[in-house]
Amino acid sequence: MSPIEAGAAACHVPATPSPAGTDPGLTALRDTGPGTTGPVSRPRTAEECADAEDTLDLRLPDDFVARFAEPARARTADRADLLDGVGSWGPTATPVGTFQLVTVLIERDLPVVSRWMNEPAVAEFWHLAGPPSVTEEHLRAQVDGDGRSVPCIGLLDGMPMSYWEIYRADLDPLARHYHSRPHDTGVHLLIGSAADRGRGVGSALLRAVAGLVLAERPACSRVVAEPDLRNAPSLSAFRAAGFRLSAEVDLPGKRAALMLRDRTSRRPL
């Protein structure tokens, strides 16, 4: 998106029909917040904001967490794999724990992703606050789309704690705003819990995911992100994860920082 620390929640620019093109900002870490794509919800009332905040740090039910251990649904035969099987990349060790991307199943993941989208720090950049139907429309555009954007839940030591969108930046509307290369891969991210922001988790996970993209996608020479320029925590997290500022670009709904991480500049995790 997606999307770190305080804003560790977001990043993103949606593709057609995917919501990938603009990142909401790490705060929603949406690395470029989805300011560029996806449905924009109405402003929330103070009561709605309070209701969302009250549920932010509730412990996820054990039966919900256990469902992530179940095998993911197989891809449909008619859906192209444009991202080299993101859901099969497996776990990776990071300084903050073992991390894994699991492809979204709407019936399983909608409640928690919708709750995250209604967290104020996330909603500011992802623009997906509102009833679950708002988030569902955003997710379904990707799940039922052509495969150029894959929504994922990030598990840290087995616990769902972040939302990601891994997308083909070269096939996304973002490509109209910079000199794209074949197989450029974009990342949107949001950190779901305030407890995981502001302590280096976002940058550690961004570094790990960028490393996974470059390791699992041999044709990809760089990872791309487009955080909102207003999202200072997100920009800081991307820099700490090895991304460099390439340019400032005007995207639908925001002015973004085009951040790049080249294959040649990868550093050990």
Salient structural properties:
10 strands, two-stranded antiparallel ribbon, alpha+beta, 269 residues, 7 helices, eight-stranded mixed beta sheet, disordered N terminus, single chain
Description of the structure:
The chain is an alpha+beta fold. It has helices at 46-55, 62-66, 106-117, 120-126, 132-143, 201-216, 232-240, and strands at residues 25-26, 29-30, 92-94, 97-103, 149-156, 159-168, 185-191, 222-225, 244-251, 254-262. A hairpin with a 2-residue loop joins β1 and β2 (29-30). α3 crosses α5 and α6 crosses α7. The radius of gyration is 16 Å and the shape is globular. Residues 1-23, 25-44, 46-58 and 71-78 have low confidence and may be disordered.
Short summary:
26% of the residues lie in helices and 22% in strands.
What is the spatial order of strands in the main beta sheet? 3-4-5-6-7-8-10-9
What portion of residues is helical? 25-40%
What letter string, H or E per element, gives the SSE order? EEHHEEHHHEEEHEHEE
Outline the low-pLDDT stretches. Answer: 1-23, 25-44, 46-58, 71-78
SS strand fraction: 15-25%
For the secondary structure, the number of strands is 10
Rg over alpha carbons: 16 Å
Number of helices: 7
Largest sheet, strands/sense/barrel: 8 strands, mixed
Morphology call: globular
The whole-number mean of residue pLDDT values reads 80
N-to-C span: 23 Å
Class inferred from helices and paired strands: alpha+beta
